[in-house]
Amino acid sequence: MPRTIIIVPTQGHDTNAFLAVAIGVARDLYGGDATILRTTVTLVRGTAYAPEEFSVAFHTRDGAEFDWDTVSGVGTVITISHAFSCDGPNLAYQDGGYQPFGTVKSGCDELTPLAQDFWETVGNRMVPGGKIFLAGCFMGWGQYGSLVASASGRTVYASDGFFGAGDIDTVSTYPRYIERGTVRPPMKRFN
What we know:
alpha/beta; 4 helices; two-stranded antiparallel sheet; seven-stranded mixed sheet
């Protein structure tokens, strides 16, 4: 069975809720056979109001460092966080507001270099037919879902409206349908 990876932030508002949802989704949908990754974002250059460069570290729940280059055979990647249409997953909501995997600020039609590299790496670690589920608000409303699909080469599912990423019932319902091949609003599919 292809591997499932669930990504949650460690910084900002609602991180405990996102982690609880990730644990529940791993247990209820994937029989506990999912790797939960926790992110730590560091501002490398710029300011919180005008960030120019970020560094993102990934760790497993037990604190072990995670390296995407050592992974293969991933079937599903799920991000659980606050978000918005151009920004992608917000990995430090109300604590700097870091969205390192967002779009270029001059518009919403191009991923930042870090986002492009990240989603390409994720796609390269996935099996053919792998899918990305972006649990957060509005990532399917603008072009973000399409940009992630293009960068990763994988099918992406994202909400075109509000989405209760901190609620286990909401988050577990939609991947369950998606794993069965059905897309239900507010989720949209991007190829």
